[in-house]
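Mods, move this if it's the wrong board.
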Amino acid sequence: MNVLFAIATGVMFGLGVFQLLRRDLIKSAMGFYILFTAINLLFLAVGAFDGQVPAYTDNLARGRPSDPLVQALLLTAIVISFGSYAFLLALISVSSRRYKTVNPDAVDQLKG
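Not the wrong board. Structure tokens:
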């Protein structure tokens, strides 16, 4: 199961970086969201693995509860990613209304 998590995380991370490097702001925002999801999946996969049973499963059958630290980190990461994604979409919305395009190469009114 951990090999499946590793492959899925790697594919999602690669797809997120690929979308992030596109020249369209909407596709870049989608790349950020895929990247955030890959990071959350990475936290879930490598949370607190003890060598036998993953941390996200309920270990009460073996006499020990599951680790709440992994769940707390995932919840925090999800909240931060949603906030960052909402702010990114707001910036894209303002930029597209002001410059009438989502292509960053077509914006020639920026002064640096």
